[in-house]
Amino acid sequence: MNLFSKSEDGSNTATNASQPDNVTAGAGSAPSTATPAPEGDGTNSQEKTELGKLTAFVKEDPQNTYYIDGEREVARSSVCRNTQQGRTCLQLLISSKVMFQQMQKMNFYCALTDEIGRTDMECKYVP
Fold first, then answer.
1. In whole angstroms, what is the distance from residue 62 CA to residue 67 CA?
2. Residue range 99-108, pLDDT digits in tens
């Protein structure tokens, strides 16, 4: 309340009002309005690119079992598969939730593994 009462004072209005307005505009109005639109647009185009990479990776060996992993609510995750040469992984800038949804669209059934302590999901193709 002190910030509001100071910003309403005549002598301190210019100094204190500019700071609270910057804070309010920066934290409340402007970023809320401006930030989601650019991030949304950037995320959608970036998401499409990343989903294309995921689809291409899975199409290379669609019958294989895939393992998706990523932190919750973070736009960074990985998808891996085991091959004769070893484990092959792809790091993508999408959330594991988005990756999970895309795997389902490609007819994969994904579930947590039976091993305690593992956070990745195992995805198998369902014909």
1. 13
2. 999 999 999 9
Same domain, 68 and 15: no
pTM of the model: 0.62
Q: What is the DSSP string of 11-27?
A: TTHHHHHHHHHHHHIII
Which one-letter DSSP state was computed for residue 34?
H
Residues 70 and 112 in one domain: yes
The answer on 25 and 78 residing in a single domain is: no
Cα dist. 94→16, 52, 63, 78 in Å? 41, 11, 23, 9
Is residue 39 situated within a structural domain?
no
Element (H, E) at 91: strand 86-92
Domain count, the chain: 2
Residues 38, 90: Cα–Cα separation, whole Å: 26
pLDDT tens for each residue of 20-65: 333 333 334 333 333 333 344 445 888 999 999 999 999 999 999 9
